[in-house]
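dumping this here before i forget
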Amino acid sequence: AAYKLIEIDEKFHLLRPGMRVVDLGSAPGGWSIVAADRVNSTGAKKKQPQGFVLGIDLQEVAPIDGAPQIQQDFMEDGADDIVKEALDGHADIVLSDMAAKATGHKATDHLRIVALCETAALFARETLSEGGAFVAKVLQGGADGELVTLLKKDFKTVRHFKPPASRSDSSEMYLVATGFKGRAEQSAD
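structure:
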């Protein structure tokens, strides 16, 4: 999975030193590790700004240097508030590699992952700084049209991208939304 984020970042240049990142669905930890390195959340690259990475997942994630992890189901009531409190400010990018357990029924699985993506998008809308980005896993199918329409209201650019590391027979792809337009209260700041 880490290779997918690397390929997304190489294509869209999303992660830079000093950025604040939230990794939704962070288990087993690959995306948090990549993000921590690219935003310099450990401070190891002395001449670059230090970033921050925060992960959350239902499953336990082994400790990651520079990327604290919260073990919590992001879909539970109040989980978003726990993440916002731990973030203690705005994020520059929200990553979501969340996936529901597969049922084997394509239509059901597609709707479940779109619901996860919609929840992640609402969280991103509440936490992103102006100009921020949102990346989320979706499955190819017709149900993400409303989500794309919603994202286009909040972001300057919204694209689908299938990283080369994603199996060719997989219906998995990613929505990459960049240039968050901000919220009304941000404009007033």
